[in-house]
# Entry
Amino acid sequence: MTLHLHRAVRTAELADDLGALLADPLPDPFAEEVVVVPEHGVERWLAQRLSHRLGAGEAGSDGVCAGVRFVRPASLVTLLTGRELDDPWLPAHLVWPLLASIDAALDEPWAAALARHLGHGQDEDDVRRGRRYGLALRLARLLHRYGVQRPAVLTAWREGRDEDLETLTSWVGATGVRWGFDAAGRSPFALSAERQNTWDFGLDRLLAGVAVSADGPLSIGGHTLPYDDVGSGSIELAGILAEVVDRLRAATEALGAARSASQWTDALREAVLDLTDVPTTDAWQIGELERVLAEASRHSPEDLPLRIADVRVLLADGPPPGVRAVATRAGRSAPPA
# Structure
């Protein structure tokens, strides 16, 4: 079996070459072509790109991407080794232990919201009780997606590092955070005079609880009630939460003020760099982000305003960041890029 490797400077060139390869149909009309992609977003983009080539007429806009099976690298391994049907992380398999876990947890206090959603204990609510399998299947699909695209998250859960998430969840509820960064952010709803239940309000309570001892004053400045359930081991976590919320606020304000394409891409760049991180081995993704955003706004005039719907289309029109596609098929070769 021969393996052909194709490389190109631009992902779009590889996608077009793949289209030329797939345009030559297999002998069996019911056989599927297998294309490996790193993530679901790449699959959507590639399927849309191929639809302009496969079965398209002279206009190039009436084709269809059919008979193509998109898989992730891990799924390809299980497919080639014959273990596809034995993979316990497949949603069709994972749904059953998840369903059993859901049923076992419905009487637990922490699962009260889940129990209400599923109509647990409400004999006449057949509609809610009928959601069990659908909910379990949705969770199974999410976990399978995490296992393929973000396995480190599942590893962290298995090792018990999700305790921080539970702590953050309890803090948000106990400090009264409901919606809005601050009172000014509620002004579109004529509620700018109400600071209570904003992130600003809740973080003030949380950070005051860090600074004030258990036997300290009941309030600070006459209006901030310290939250007194922040352990000494969670002080750093409280600081991280405050920093993340501040960065989210800055990103939201920058995006809200953006008008031209370059302003939108600048705001998106800063937001991504402030809110995400990649290991050193994946640092190329940052450069790819810079390239895609720069290309998106390169020819746009500064005096032409864009709305968020326009920006979505602008970014969806090109290959998504992080794409390094390689199209291969045993025994067949696309034209060299």
In short: The first helix runs from residue 11 to 22. The chain has three domains: 11-71, 91-161, 164-316. Residues 319-337 have pLDDT under 50 and may be disordered. The chain has 14 helices and two strands.
